[in-house]
Specification:
Elements (H helix, E strand, L loop, with lengths): L5 E7 L3 E8 L8 E2 L3 E6 L3 E6 L5 E6 L4 E4 L4 E6 L5 E8 L1
Antiparallel strand pairs: 1-2, 2-9, 3-8, 4-7, 4-9, 5-6, 5-8
């Protein structure tokens, strides 16, 4: 059985939902679909394995302190592909 990433909700109001995700090595979010636009800010260096629909896999490194944004509709499973703890903060725009 897969190790689940730990999600800690920080804010959930009328404008945004902010969640911190902490991953042990090999931990994953599980398959999910983003219903809102979102921004990710890496707390640590994030060595991600992204499982995408159709069996596609992407390996991405997001350096600590950097951010990226995606539009709603993204579907994937995010896995910590590194050998150390991985953490990021996700801000969903309502």
């Amino acid at each position: 059985m897969a190790i689940a990433a730990q999600a800690t909700q920080m804010i959930d109001d009328t404008r945004v939902r902010v969640t911190r995700f902490d991953f042990a090595p090999g931990a994953e979010t599980g398959w999910h679909w983003h219903a809102m636009d979102y921004v990710i800010t890496a707390v640590t260096d994030c060595h991600m394995r992204l499982e995408m629909p159709g069996g596609n896999v992407k390996k991405v490194t997001v350096p600590a302190g950097t951010a990226y944004r995606r539009d709603e509709g993204v579907e994937h499973n995010v896995i910590n592909a590194g050998d150390t703890q991985m953490s990021f903060v996700e801000v969903e725009l309502k």
